[in-house]
Amino acid sequence: MKAKLQPYFRKYVILTCSSLLLRVYGGVYRLFLLRRFGAEPFGLLGMIFPFYRLLSLLATLGLPTAFARLVAIENAKKNAAWIGEAKSKVFTLVAATAVIVSGLLFLGATPLGTFLYHDLRTGPLLKYYACALNLHCLCLVYRGYFHGLDHIAPLTFADLIETLGETVYILLFLYDGACPPVNGEVAGRVLAKGYLLGEATCLGALFLYDRFRVRPQLAGAVTRPASGRKLLPLLLSSFPLMAQQLVLSLARIADSILLPRLLAKGGLSANQIAHLLGVYWEMATPLLFFPLILFSPVSTLILPATARAVAQNKLPAYLRKLRWLLGGAFLYALGVCFLLLKFGPLLARLLYGTTAATRYLPFLLPALPFLLLNSLLTPVAEGLGKQLFLLRATLVLLCVKTGVTAAFVPLPAFGLAGAAWGLTTSQVLLFCLLWKEIFLTVIPNPKWFLLFKTSLFHLPKT
Predict the structure, then answer these.
(1) What count of other Cβ atoms lies within 10 Å of the Cβ of residue 260?
(2) 153: burial class by Cβ within 10 Å (0-12, 13-18, 19+)?
(3) Pairing outcome for strands 448-449 and 452-453
(4) How far apart are CA 48 and CA 46, in angstroms?
(5) What is the pLDDT of residues 256-273, one digit of tens each?
(6) What is the DSSP string of 413-443?
(7) pLDDT tens across 87-116, in order?
(8) DSSP 8-class letter at 366
């Protein structure tokens, strides 16, 4: 048992350490840039980035996640021939789509920036992001490829190398002796160029890892001829994933529009709305999501493990082990909730210098156990190939969340606490849907219900 768990523990340690390192470094680096450049360039990039993410979803067609699942299945079957053939097809398709999308964005950057953001300064920034779009999409495909092969090292080190490439460029610019004082527009261009260089560095590192580490392993593996899988079934399986991610991306954009309008209906001024949203988004919500970092590496490992269990016909045993993981995650989340309730004011004062964020914690913390469980169950559903179910579940929970938010946020007694209740309600509903689909549908008559044996619910015979 120890020998079986050792590789997973090593991967978990690598993912956890790299994630913590990036979080700490990213926070310090962002504070440094805010002091040097001010908040204006980050505001400009903050307007552009959600739209850029939306375009990257459209350009990749949802293929990275679907490709990761199928690579994991074929890798379990030792079918290296299909993996190599499919990789070349997926890369070609994504590269062609990304070139078209980025070309249209580059040509229409100036009028698009004026139309969407009413700011001419966003036009040049969109051009830099158009160039970065091609690199970013190919990086996503590489990540899905390595994810399916269960190569964790490139997934972690690529993020570090990307951040390093961006940092080196910006620091060289800042400490250039001939560098004049910069305004918000110039600083935004510097940050955009740094992001472009970071994506190029990341793609180069992933390519070199594939060229000198993965390809020789696949070439030396004993393989069968390609099993005949075509690109069309892969595309059909990726479209629901793309639609799901697209819906989530649009929902994030809609939240930034809907919440200010709902608060305005409650009689708040523009300054009050901006202050409350800043407290809710930048102070309270990070306190909720930061504890999830301990289990985020586990969710990365779950998708290929689930696909291998399906390919090897070991799904019932795999799901039994998964229940123990879910039980531990649930107890961990409950412990964190109690700690945040008790020490939340002290933590908020240390981090932000104010306890304003703690007013939302009683409404947000009930969502924490379900957020954590959903982060573990979602890659299980992806590994089982339940893309259409995930799309339908996402649409349902967004409708519920929007309905609860729209009903309570305009009420003065609730305000943004209504948005917190919408988040909690939607996560509870998503957990119920995921549990039913995974444990009550895949295995029709389970011997366990939640964390209890079903025999405990049977009445004794008389």
Answers:
(1) 16
(2) middle
(3) antiparallel
(4) 5
(5) 667 777 887 878 776 677
(6) TTTTHHHHHHHHHHHHHHHHHHHIIIIIISS
(7) 888 899 999 999 999 999 899 888 887 777
(8) G
Spatial distance between the Cα atoms of 415 and 409, rounded to a whole number of angstroms = 4
Instruction: Find where tokens 């209740």 sit.
Output: 421
Residue 410 to residues 285, 326, 363, 400, 418: CA-CA distances in angstroms?
20, 36, 16, 16, 8
Taking the model in full, what pTM does it have?
0.68
CA gap 50, 40 in Å, rounded: 17
d(CA 90, CA 67): 8
Write out 95-149 in H/E/C secondary structure.
HHHHHHHHHHHHHCHHHHHHHHHCCCCHHHHHHHHHHHHHHHHHHHHHHHHHHHC
Q: Which residues contact 431 (CB under 8 A, 6 or more apart)?
A: 370, 373, 374, 377
The amino acid that residue 322 corresponds to is L
User: CB within 8 A of 27, min separation 6: which ones?
Assistant: none
- pLDDT at residue 447 greater than cutoff 70: no
Q: How far apart, in Å, are the Cα atoms of 338 and each of 112, 284, 325, 426?
A: 47, 16, 20, 22
pLDDT of 111 reads 86
pLDDT (tens digit per residue) in 375-425: 999 989 888 888 788 888 888 888 888 888 888 888 888 888 888 899 999
The tokens 């090897």 sit on which residue?
A: 312
Mean pLDDT is lowest, of 15-24, 50-59, 69-78, 226-235, for 226-235
Q: How many CB atoms neighbour CB 361 within 10 A? A: 21
Q: Provide, rounded to the nearest whole percent, the portion of the chain with pLDDT above 70.
A: 79
Start-to-end CA span in the chain (Å): 42
Query: What span, in angstroms and rounded, lies between the C-alpha atoms of 447 and 455?
Result: 8
Name the residue among 388, 456, 396 with its Cα closest to residue 430.
396
Residues whose CB is less than 8 angstroms from the CB of residue 90 and which lie 6 or more positions away in sequence, other chains included:
63, 67, 141, 145, 231, 234
pLDDT, tens only, 349-366:
887 777 888 888 899 999
